[in-house]
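Re-run with default settings, no changes from the original entry. Doing this only to confirm the output is reproducible before filing.
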Amino acid sequence: MKRSLLVITILFLSIKTFAQGDGPKSHNFAPTGIWGINPKYLHLTQNLVPSGTILVDGAEFTIDVAPITLFHTFGIKGRYARVYAMINPGSATGNVEASPGVTSINANGFADGFVAMELGLINSPALTIQEFSKHTPTFTMTGNLRLWYSGTYDSEKLLNLGTNRWIIEVGTPMNIPLSTTPGKATWLETYPYMQFYTDNNDPARSARAEVTAQKAMFRIENHLTHNFTPKLWASFDFSYQYGGRTVVDGVDDDNLINILGGGATVGYQVLPYLSAYVGYGTVFAGDNDANVDMFRFSVAFTYANMKK
């Protein structure tokens, strides 16, 4: 057994990038025995709180975060499996409409992070790198379970990076090959999922509120990706999300999230063990004047043990 660098383009893992999702290649089927780290930088301007799950009428937030994800792929009874976890340092500033006028606010620390596991369901066997290199791409489906924990939170502050609650995310990532031409493959990545939220029993937005709850949210994230060369690829990214209305002491807020968003991404295999991409995303249409503009830069370092 020899320790060596992985010589194929592999996973980009991420923070759930607010209205723009995980990003392309986040749930690609992959060989087992891979370890990696995926740091990112995101700059966002939006009227959703830093977690991207609550719409705030009349607000404008500028958010800079640098999520770092660690991941490992392996096999469970012949099925592909992956565990991964993310921490998310960052900062945010913003303006909100408040009596008697506009209030400037800021926050620093950590946004919400997660621990997660993915397991093969359909056409997702546990393959070594050697086996994977001979594998013919086909439709794959995995099951993904992600548990989000709160980042930095202070109920005395109007703006927080953390949410002071847990989020349970359940979904089924799918990869659909449209063309398997060597070096010029085209495929569709789609990830439908639901998020369920526990209550915030120490809400910061109102001194009179005892509990802030939130209704479940559905989302589907899609990436149509094409390799122009074995190293250069691009994707058209599009997504839809619905739900997430907040409930304060049993009273529904008028902040339902109903957003159609998307953008574009360009990536390159810089070195055998180093991949990178840049992307832009925005809201195409949305209720309640929802708006998001996002710039994203991501790199992924990977390695594996390979048999001679």
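Helices lie at 129-133. The radius of gyration is 20 Å.
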